[in-house]
């Protein structure tokens, strides 16, 4: 049965917008030594915006932007939504017909438009070795600014680079600083490119990051962190994050995250504010001292 001290900790946390799904998680949270954090939607707002577009001179820019927007309109990925919003602001999509659109989780999308195969996604997915030095140069520069780089490829030729910038949440930096003060080691996990990851981690004040992480690889990294640190928490918001949340000693979901993440998590942050988890960690260790 649940002790009065635990119950009081849970109700105290609930008043501060942190939902514990059971007493055991209060105890587990008090033991964590490291915390893995998803980048998009957890450290950042998860609302990226297109900031730059470079289209190869062999293609019509208006057409490329319109096609990318039309294809991405069939995906719910935050990057896809940003590409569609950008495209809608600039170009008319009505005449473009998209066939056979496919989501490739953690990578991008493919589709057929005007009888040509389009691939849109991260550099490794579309095959950056096939792009010109010109486009690769632009891509690295954009990634170093913390922007996510998306390539568009038509029939095997890379024709455009899109850069998307997401904003680090106001509360992130302070929360990371507090975690470090509590002696808890933060690690950022992301499917994004190394250069982008490095810039965002730096902005958030996180020293260790793991980039180019496919959704299923997040689970492996959580398991490795468990081996190294003993008890770890994982914070995420997306469908992709659910298996990693389940693999951590304590899974924490951002309240505005997807249903799957909310269901899988042990703790839900009702407001998307990381500071609430650091407060709960302090609370849980205090409670644990009282109980023992
Ligand atoms: P994260 O781990 O940052 O939440 P994902 O695992 O969902 O990201 O995706 C990893 C990378 O794959 C993205 O950074 C992006 O480059 C690419 N990607 C995924 N889906 C799309 C899409 N619909 N359009 C463009 N790029 C995409
Ligand atoms: Mg995310």
Automatic annotation (TrEMBL):
Highest taxon of source: Bacteria
Position of the signal peptide: none
Location in the cell: Cell membrane
Record-stated family: Belongs to the cation transport ATPase (P-type) (TC 3.A.3) family. Type IB subfamily.
Protein name, as recorded: Cd2+/Zn2+-exporting ATPase
Organism for this UniProt entry: Ornithinibacillus halophilus
First and last residues shown, out of full length: 306 to 597 of 650
């Amino acid at each position: 049965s649940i002790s009065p001290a635990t119950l009081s900790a849970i109700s105290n946390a609930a008043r501060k917008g942190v939902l514990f799904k059971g007493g055991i998680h209060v105890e587990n949270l008090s033991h964590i030594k490291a915390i893995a954090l998803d980048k998009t939607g957890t450290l950042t707002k998860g609302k990226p915006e297109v900031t730059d577009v470079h289209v190869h001179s062999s293609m019509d820019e208006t057409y490329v932007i319109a096609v990318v927007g039309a294809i991405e309109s069939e995906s719910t990925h935050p990057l896809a939504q940003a590409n569609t919003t950008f495209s809608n602001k600039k170009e008319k999509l009505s005449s473009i017909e998209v066939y056979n659109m496919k989501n490739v989780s953690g990578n991008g999308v493919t589709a057929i438009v005007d009888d040509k195969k389009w691939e849109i996604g991260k550099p490794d997915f579309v095959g950056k070795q096939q792009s010109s030095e010109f486009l690769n140069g632009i891509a690295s520069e954009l990634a170093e600014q913390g922007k996510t780089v998306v390539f568009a490829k038509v029939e095997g030729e890379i024709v455009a680079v899109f850069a998307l910038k997401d904003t680090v949440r106001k509360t992130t930096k302070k929360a990371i600083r507090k975690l470090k003060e509590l002696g808890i080691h933060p690690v950022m996990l992301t499917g994004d490119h190394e250069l982008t990851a490095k810039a965002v981690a730096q902005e958030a004040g996180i020293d260790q990051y793991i980039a180019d992480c496919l959704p299923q690889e997040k689970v492996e990294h959580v398991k490795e962190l468990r081996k190294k640190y003993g008890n770890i928490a994982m914070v995420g918001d997306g469908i992709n994050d659910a298996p990693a949340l389940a693999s951590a000693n304590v899974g924490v979901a951002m309240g505005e995250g997807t249903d799957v993440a909310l269901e899988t998590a042990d703790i839900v942050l009702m407001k998307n504010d990381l500071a609430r988890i650091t407060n709960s960690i302090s609370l849980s260790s205090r409670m644990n001292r009282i109980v023992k």
